[in-house]
Design goal:
The chain has helices at residues 4-46, 58-116, 122-137, 175-183, 232-273, and strands spanning 139-148, 153-160, 170-171, 187-188, 204-210, 213-223. By secondary structure, it is of the alpha+beta class.
Length: 274
Amino acid sequence: MMEPEDEKGSAKKVEEFLQVFKKGAEFTQELLKENERLRYQILQLRQGPHQSPPAPDGSEVAALKKQIEDLERDKQEILDRIKQIQQENHDFANRYVEIESENNNLANLYIASFQLHSTLDFREVLQVIMEIVINLIGAEEFAILLHDEKTNRLQAVSAEGVDKAELPSVGLGEGVIGEVAQTGESYFFANIEDYQEDFSHPMVCIPLKIKDHVIGVIVIYKLLVQKNRFAEVDFELFTLLAGHAATAIFSSKLYSESERKLSTIQGFIELLTK
């Protein structure tokens, strides 16, 4: 999140911009009045001999013309500067909004990551991952597939918007999903607006990996209606999510297995001691 000092600095810069606008506008008004006065004076000087003031010589007229030209040039410089500052202020405001949005997304991811690592229950971990993909990524139809070391295939363990039973079992290297699981490289469909739903060819496929070891993938088939493209921050979220989700899943599975083994050992000891 933006530090308080940065926010004060931003507010100060905006205030300086506003002061420049105000002074520029006042100075422009003064230049316009002076310009009008000088034009009127030249008009009087150019009128016939019936006017009370004596007719000026050529040097006086030339001097007045030069003064008007200088004022016109100064006015144009001020207007150009105001336009430039307005553009800078507009760019600054847009960038400020982008940074705030990125900070909010990263803060949400931090909270979600904390939730991921706050439980060792496998089902709870899967549920947290599903909520992150919905709320932060904006996916409507997606699934989590994990690698089964016994069969050496990827099996769906959780899904949203689609029937888990309809999702195919995928071997390493088979199609887009198998290729991502084998290489550890993310896949994104070139133009999501042209994507046609295909369970074997998802719109997005993100590997869940711990270092170079892939334990599964997240596949996305459809985004929410209000989301029609991926922003730059989405790709950062995908990367961070993949690492945190993989660690949480791996830890919860180890814990579940150790709990089952411990329960089995305790049951065996109880049988022996009876």
